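[User] Could I get a sequence and structure tokens?

[Assistant]
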Amino acid sequence: MANDITGKQAAESTAAQGGKTTIEDAVVAKIAGIAARDVPGVYALGGGAARVVGAIRDALNSTDLAQGIGVEVGEKQVAVDVTLVAEYPVSLQELAGAVRASVYRAMQELVGLEVTEVNVTINDVHIPSEDEGDDGQEARVQ
């Protein structure tokens, strides 16, 4: 099966039986997002503003699996940019390598395109006590 991408919009492949398969950029980004989220040590994907919008979507049960993911699809290749928040205390270099490997594998196995690069940007570190909301004081009311 030969892979062929037309423009920046879609990946297309022609099957031996004839016909055309189109994979939209949004689908490629979603697959990359799922692959990145599956890596232990990834707390969230996206930058600050994207995470705020993501929290609102989560509250509405409408998670954007492509949040924090950028893709550039060519004729036979794909490049992926991943922006994430790491859990503390995880090795950031090891995390970036694991995310890169997971996304690379997903692009080759599920999308069927050659991966030119997977760039990983770690823009924050999540410290578990930040979200607990416990300031050490007893509740004033029960």
Observations:
- The chain has four helices and seven strands.
- Strands lie at 2-6, 10-14, 20-24, 42-45, 69-73, 77-87, 114-126.
- Residues 24-128 form a domain with the Alpha-Beta Plaits fold (CATH 3.30.70.1350).
